[in-house]
Design goal:
The complex is a heterodimer of chains A (about 775) and B (about 110).
Chain A lengths: L7 H6 L3 H7 L2 H17 L8 H13 L3 H33 L4 H25 L1 H11 L4 H14 L6 H17 L6 H13 L9 H28 L2 H22 L5 H13 L3 H6 L5 H6 L3 H13 L3 H34 L5 H24 L5 H17 L3 H16 L5 H17 L3 H17 L6 H15 L1 H30 L31 H17 L13 E7 L4 E7 H9 L8 E3 H8 L3 H13 L5 E4 L10 E4 L9 E3 L10 H30 L1 E3 H12 L7 H13 L3 E3 L6 E4 L2
Chain B lengths: L8 E5 L5 E5 H4 L3 H8 L5 H5 L1 E3 L5 H17 L9 E2 L2 H14 L9 E2 L1
Helix pairs in contact in B: 4-5
The chains are: A mainly alpha (about 775), B alpha/beta (about 110).
């Protein structure tokens, strides 16, 4: 430090010890002055004071180590002041609050006035004694002057040990809130000021507001009691929709209350109370109420009320679950009703001896679709597309759909019906919506392979008889199925389409062939060549003795076909084709379009002298057709709308002893007549059994294939894992039973595809 | 009541009777002055706009005022900041005044005694 020597004495002058002597009496002289200044401030006469003067007093006391004395002095001063304030301004009001709850606001206001004044004073005192806060307080870990002021207020006014101020304050606040809940208008400002005050004051740790201990706990408890009583009363008096509206209002009110004059921190607590008391405790009651419970809401499609129910129930634990169960139960009931309807009409028609009509199937599917539509709407508009609700609803549908063992057949019939008739003239969009809905239902089916079988059957009829409304729609449906179940599922269906596509080609080459051929078929021959594995046809055709000119035509075609495709074998199925016959009756000539089998039968009568009858057995002898087919064919030409043959005796059923005569007197306005064989309908019991056998067969096949696929991959695997993997593979198509898989494994061991590992019987080895 | 708060200036009076009229903003750099002028209590300082420092001599108060302006001038400045010189014989008293006035004069790096 570069200083001039001459300046040193000046520094010596300002040595601290010179002041020490003066400090002995500093506190005694300064304190009364400072104390009276504080009192002046508390009397709201601060404008007569000089800040500098008071500040200097405090400052000097602190730098002369009188911090502790000063702090305690101030504390004592404030405490005394507040006690007199309480006695003068608050205690007299207490009796008013006692006298009438409505006047309670006066108490709030009185406390408020003292509080506001105290706050102002404390701010000034804090400013003046800033040095105390900065230099003394940090060493001692005492609260700052301002905080100390708030603590004193808390302890000597709110929690005063001499006056019951706290109890009164709480009572008044709770009364005010209860009054507002009952619909009265209250002085929100006064309540808000009080809660703000309680929030401002902290517990000794400096973070928790006095509000929590002195008010919130009590508030929550009394609210619980209030809502317990109210909900019991309301549930008794109102329908669920009205009750739910009231609950919703209450929830809104409490939320607003917290925003307006309590604190946001109370909101979740009070919300929980309302939810517990008004919703959780009455879940079952609300749902199962006779009048306008869940069931009635669903039946009457009260979307808004359902939405409210969803929103309220979702608030409480298990509420959503309960509601889902309720909804699922309702769906189950509806589904059971539909299923029962099917059963009833099936039984009815069986009693009459008739086959249950297609209408039953259509009605069932339509009912299911309508139900699904309804719940799609409910889900979207009332349940906010909640995923868990979607799952619950879908599970319910799945359950009851699969309870109807005829579900796969019905669905296929429904689509068949649509594709044959109802899609005519419909727009692409309409068609697409219906198909999409069907795809959704299809997704619910567990026996998808059974559906495939029926679909194939129905599709083949549509294709062969050219009954489908549009090829494009057919393909669209196949594509949808493909998306659902994969390529494997639809490959055969697509193969059917390929066969149909190749048809015109084959026929035009056949024509070219005929142009150069020596031998011509005796009539116009139109052949549909099908790949036998794609189509639902027996591998061996039913026996049928064709007339001579049929055989000639067949020979010509076979020659043509083998010349183009070497090594392919053609088998002729009379069940699927149709023939145009020109028949001469007494009155006029008719052109008859009949099935191939019917043609074979009718052609017999060409060789019979007019008027003579032929017995059933003779026809059977001639055609070699099996009884079941022959009877159906004869029924269509002799018992149907157009009676080409006359049966003796007359009845609906064909007996072995019947006699048939050509009905020469047949007359009809139209020249061209189409005689249909009995169309596709719901299967008879025998057919159902047959289908079931076929399905089981196919399933066994699939299961074995899956087992081999897995084992080929793994080489060695234990039983449980093998079963698990196989089930996973098969589940897309149907629900395999464990015994079935076990049996398949045994069968494969027998055929030496697998072996049990030596030593460990639970382990299988793959044998290459 | 004459509201001094509206004035741009404030008068500071030393113990030996000298008056310094300086910008209110500059004087507010002192925490103590700031409290005096902005406290809710309407003390005499607030109403009259004069602050009487009974413990600070004019020489020191002048130095303090200089420092306020120096600080206000170079606060947030990007240019080179010159040194602020304090004569050694006033150093201790200036520091005591700074403590009283609640100014962080000590930590200023450009301070040169």
């Amino acid at each position: 430090m570069a200083t001039l020597p001459g300046r040193r004495p000046i520094r010596g002058k300002i040595r601290p010890p010179s002041k020490k002597a003066a400090t002995e009496s500093l506190f005694d002289t300064s304190w009364p002055e400072l104390a009276s200044a504080m009192t002046t401030i508390q009397q709201q006469k601060a404008n007569t004071l000089s800040f500098e003067e008071v500040y200097r007093l405090g400052y000097n006391m602190v730098i002369h180590k009188y911090g502790e004395k000063l702090y305690l002095g101030i504390q004592d001063l404030i405490e005394k002041h507040l006690k007199t304030e309480a006695e003068a301004k608050i205690v007299p009001v207490l009796s008013i609050a006692d006298a009438s709850p409505a006047e309670g606001v006066e108490l709030l206001k009185a406390i408020q006035r003292v509080w506001m004044h105290h706050i102002t004073c404390m701010k000034m005192i804090k400013d003046i004694l800033v040095h105390l806060d900065k230099n003394y307080v940090p060493q001692t870990r005492l609260p700052t002057i301002y905080d100390m002021g708030l603590y004193i207020f808390r302890d000597s006014i709110i929690r005063s040990s001499t006056h019951p101020i706290q109890a009164h304050l709480q009572l008044v606040l709770l009364n005010q809130i209860t009054q507002e809940r009952k619909g009265d208008v209250i002085d929100r400002g006064a309540v808000k000021a009080s809660t703000d005050m309680l929030l401002e004051m902290k517990e000794n740790n400096g973070t928790d507001a006095v509000y929590t201990a002195d008010f919130e706990l009590l508030f929550v408890e009394t609210s619980r009691e209030f809502y317990r009583l109210e909900s019991e009363d309301l549930v008794r008096r109102f329908d669920p929709p009205d009750y739910m509206k009231k609950v919703e209002n209450r929830l809104d009110e409490e939320k607003l209350r917290c925003n307006h004059y309590l604190t946001a921190k109370t909101e979740p607590k009070i919300r929980l109370i309302v939810e517990q008391e008004m919703i959780a405790k009455h879940l079952k009651t609300i749902m199962e109420m006779e009048n306008w419970g869940l069931k009635q809401l669903l039946i009457n499609h009260r979307l808004e009320d359902l939405d409210r129910m969803y929103r309220l129930f979702s608030r409480v634990p298990d509420g959503a679950k309960e509601l889902q169960n309720g909804v699922a139960a309702y769906i189950n009931d509806c589904g059971k009703a539909s299923n029962a309807g099917v059963k009833a009409s099936t039984q009815e028609s069986q009693e009459k001896g008739a086959v249950p009509g297609v209408t039953v199937a259509l009605r069932w599917v339509q009912e299911v679709l309508d139900l699904k539509d309804k719940f799609d709407k409910v889900l979207a508009l009332s349940f906010a597309k909640d995923k868990s609700f979607e799952t619950a609803i879908n599970a319910a549908f799945e359950r009851f759909i699969n309870l109807n063992i005829k579900a796969p057949e019905f669905m296929s019939l429904f689509i068949d019906n649509k594709l044959k008739k109802e899609f005519k003239g419909k727009s692409d969009d309409e068609v697409d919506t219906i198909l999409n809905k069907m795809t959704t239902l299809f997704r619910f089916l567990s026996d998808k392979d059974v559906f495939e079988r029926y679909y194939k059957q129905h599709l083949s009829t549509r294709l062969l008889l050219g009954k489908s409304v549009s090829d494009e729609v057919e393909r669209g449906m196949i594509t949808k199925l493909k998306i659902e179940c994969g390529y494997q599922f639809t490959s055969k269906l697509e193969g059917m389409f390929t066969d149909m596509r190749l048809l015109p080609d084959t026929m035009s080459s056949f024509k070219d062939f005929l142009d150069n051929a020596i031998e011509q078929p005796p009539f116009d021959l139109h052949t549909t060549v099908l790949t036998s594995t794609f189509w639902p046809i027996a591998s061996t055709p039913i026996p049928c003795h064709f007339p001579q000119n049929f055989l000639t035509a067949i020979k010509v075609f076979e020659r043509f076909y083998t010349s183009r495709h070497n090594g392919r074998k053609l088998s002729w199925h009379p069940t699927m084709g149709n023939v145009d016959l020109r028949a001469t009756f007494d009155s006029k000539k008719h052109e008859l379009n009949v099935s191939t089998m019917a043609a074979v039968v009718l052609l017999i009568f060409n060789n019979i002298p007019a008027g003579e009858s032929v017995s059933y057995t003779a026809i059977r002898e001639e055609t070699k057709l099996p009884d079941e087919h022959l009877k159906r064919t004869l029924q269509s030409v002799a018992c149907g709308k157009f009676k080409i043959l006359v049966k003796e005796p007359k009845s609906r059923e064909i007996e072995d002893t019947d006699q048939f005569t050509f009905n020469a007197g047949f007359s009809e306005k139209l020249t061209r007549i189409k005689i249909q064989t009995i169309a596709s309908k719901v299967e008879t019991v025998a057919e159902l059994k047959d289908t079931k056998e076929k399905v089981d067969d196919a399933r066994n096949h699939m299961a074995e294939a899956a087992i081999v696929r897995v084992m080929k991959n793994r080489k060695q695997l234990d039983h449980n894992n093998l079963v698990a993997e196989v089930v996973a593979q098969l589940q897309v198509r149907f629900n395999p039973s464990l015994t079935m898989i076990k049996r398949r494994i045994e069968a494969l061991i027998e055929r030496e595809y697998l072996e049990r590992a030596p030593g460990d019987r639970k382990l299988y080895n793959y044998m290459a | 009541m004459a509201q001094a708060t509206e004035s741009e200036y404030v008068t500071l009076e030393s113990s030996d009777g000298f008056q310094f009229v300086i910008h209110r903003e500059a004087a507010m750099l002192s925490g103590t002055v700031k409290n005096m002028l902005s406290s809710s209590g309407q003390f005499t300082e607030t109403t009259e706009g004069i602050i009487h420092f009974r413990d600070i001599k004019a020489v020191i108060l002048e130095k303090v005022c200089q420092y306020w302006y120096y600080k206000a001038r170079y606060l947030n400045s990007v240019t080179e900041i010159p040194h602020f010189d304090i004569e050694p014989e006033y150093a201790l008293e200036t520091l005591m005044a700074a403590d009283f006035l609640d100014i962080f004069i000590l930590v200023h790096e450009k301070l040169r005694v």
